[in-house]
Amino acid sequence: MSLPIPPFYWRQNVLCCIAMDEHIQLDQFLKFAQVVASGGEAKQLVKSGAVRVNDEVELRRGRKLYHGDVVEVDGIEMLVEFGSNQR
C-alpha cells in the first residue's frame, strides 16, 4: 500500500511540504517530495552527500525531520511543515 502524497506549495521560492505527523524520516520525505521514486534511490542519494538538512550535509536516510527543517537537493529547498496548510 502506498502512502498518500501530502500537499505541496511554493512560498518565497521554497517548496513546502505539509506532513501529517510529528516527524517524518528523510527517506520518506524525499519520496513524498518526488525527489526519488524509491527507498533505494533515497538511500543512494543521501549516501552520496547530495542532501543537506538545515544547511548541513546529511548522510543518514533515517534522520527524523521536524517542523521547520529545510531539506536541500540540487539547489532546491524544501521546507517541512506539519498541520494545516498556511499559504
Report on the architecture of this protein:
By secondary structure, this protein is α+β, with helices and mostly antiparallel strands. The protein has a single domain, classed as Structural Genomics Hypothetical 15.5 Kd Protein In mrcA-pckA Intergenic Region, Chain A. It is built from 2 helices and 8 strands; from the N terminus they run βββααβββββ. α1 crosses α2. The longest helix is centred in the middle third of the chain and has 9 residues, at 39-47. The mean pLDDT is 83.
Summarize the structure.
The chain has 87 residues and is of the alpha+beta class.
Shape call: globular
Give the CATH topology. Answer: Structural Genomics Hypothetical 15.5 Kd Protein In mrcA-pckA Intergenic Region, Chain A
Please give the radius of gyration in angstroms.
Answer: 12 Å
pLDDT < 50 stretches: none
Head-to-tail CA distance between termini:
30 Å
The helix content, as a percent range, equals 10-25%
Order of the strands making up the biggest sheet: 1-2-8-7-4-5
Q: Give the helix/strand class.
A: alpha+beta
Biggest pleated sheet: 6 strands, mixed
Total helix count? 2
Which series of helices and strands comes N to C? EEEHHEEEEE
CATH homologous superfamily designation: RNA-binding S4 domain
- Beta-sheet strand percentage? 25-35%
